[in-house]
Amino acid sequence: MSDRVILFDTTLRDGEQALAASLSVNEKLQIARALERTGIDIIEAGFPVSSPGDFDSVQQIARTLRDSRVCALSRAVQGDIDAAAEAMKVADQFRIHTFISTSSIHVESKLKRNFDQVLEMATGAVRYARRFTDDVEFSCEDAGRTPIDNLCRMVEAAIKAGATTVNIPDTVGYTTPTEFGGIITNLFERVPNIHQAVISVHCHDDLGLSVANSIAAIEAGARQVEGTINGIGERAGNAALEEVIMILNTRQTHFGLTTNARPTEIYRTSSQVSRLCNMPIQPNKAIVGSNAFSHSSGIHQDGMLKAQNTYEIMTPESVGLPRNTLNLTSRSGRHVIKHRMTELGYQEQDFDLDTLYQRFLELADKKGQVFDYDLEALLFFENQKEDD
Ligand code: KIV
Ligand code: ZN
Question: Which positions fall inside the Pyruvate carboxyltransferase domain (predicted)?
Fold first, then answer.
């Protein structure tokens, strides 16, 4: 089994489909380029049959990408597959991603078919897609709620029909990490041809478990992980790819797995996605939230000044942030103020630390957070007093 996890980004498909206002072609191109810079292997650019605008943007992205491979979504019907192939044929290599539901709830209530009919449709779609490309991904929609015997049958049949990647989505974010990892383990134990395809996972965040479920699946043998930047997507969203990347990166010795990601691009890509999609990032969001590398309590700040790894398991620089932030509040110690003044270019003889710290505490009690320009103003007023 490979020790590399393939990164599949669906910000422009699953992510975009959840936005109040669609992205323009130009905005999608900017995001696609940012994803490419971040080292994403496969970029799902859209669902070409869904609208002429989507077709056009998939085509333009297919024309632009060099290092990442373009992919487009299609239902398990020929018209969708034709549209996907037509939109991407400008690229040297492309992936067609076709899918159909496999859970009993979806098969009976949504598709109004029986499982054998759905199996026929799935294998027919995979065979048809293989006429256009040798890179075909098949997804078992709502795999998380699919009876395991049916899921095993579907995965085996899809691989036999020519799927090179088989994706196991937790479409409604229902499973727990133990359950979801168990599904992947079961597939590896029971599907005889499973090593002929890459097993992929695609988790939604309805219970806040999408990243945990993805990691459990990787531990059980999945070697492609699907997600979006900042976790944007349907309802509560998809697995946040920047979190998956940094989990595998920060705990490299634990997992022993690699990716092609360039983590130092994460912050820039995340900010761009947030701005273009008009989706603010919560301050305490892991990896990319504005508080992710800031330290407020006096004890933490003091520890950070002694050694960065006391309270940081990865550096802000590693995800592309210039440096960590020590929030200056009434809980900050004298130590931190002295350090910040040195960072601002002052020498010890330029200020009286006791007085400055006293003024700082008075100000912090009034306004909460004290900024660098406040410190400079306090120093200026103290020096003025001395001169008078
Ligand atoms: O969540 C899902 O099941 C999907 C499929 C189309 C892969 O987005
Ligand atoms: Zn999805």
Answer: 5-263
Is residue 350 annotated as involved in ligand binding? no
Q: Which of 14, 16, 110 is the best mutation target for the ligand 1 pocket, counting ligand atoms within 8 Å of the beta carbon and taking the most? A: 14
Cα 25 from Cα 59, distance rounded (Å): 10
Instruction: Give all strands (DSSP E) within the chain, no chain letters.
Output: 6-9, 42-46, 69-75, 94-101, 136-141, 165-170, 198-203, 224-227, 294-295, 325-326
262's tokens: 């360039």
Distance CA 337, CA 341 (A): 6
Q: How far is the CA of 90 from the centre of ligand 1 (A)?
A: 25
Rounded Cα–Cα distance for residues 37 and 222 (Å): 24
Q: What is the pLDDT of residue 388?
A: 65
Give the helix/strand (H/E) hosting 128. helix 115-129
Complex ipTM more than 0.95, yes or no:
yes
pTM confidence score: 0.88
SS3 183: helix
Q: Is residue 228 a contact partner of residue 249, using CB atoms and an 8 Å limit?
A: no
pLDDT interval class at 377 (50, 70, 90): confident
Query: Mind giving me the DSSP string for 222-286?
Result: --EEEEBGGG--STT-B-BHHHHHHHHHHTHHHH--B----GGGHHHHHHHHHHHHT-PPPTT-T
In short, whether 170's Cβ falls inside 6 Å of ligand 1 is no
pLDDT (tens digit per residue) in 88-142: 999 999 999 999 999 999 999 999 999 999 999 999 999 999 999 999 999 999 9
pLDDT of residue 12: 98
Collapse the DSSP code of 309 into the 3-class scheme (helix H, G, I; strand E, B; otherwise coil) and give the result.
Answer: helix
Helix, strand counts (H, E) of the chain = 15, 10
- Which residues lie below 8 Å from residue 374, measured CB to CB, with a gap of 6+? 328, 363, 367
Average pLDDT, the chain: 95
Q: Which atom of ligand 1 lies closest to the CA of 10? A: 8
Query: 238 a known binding residue?
Result: yes
Q: Given the structure tokens 């487009």, which residue do they identify?
A: 72
The Å distance, Cα 308 to ligand 1 centre, comes to 40
pLDDT of residue 136: 99
Structure tokens at 369: 């957070």
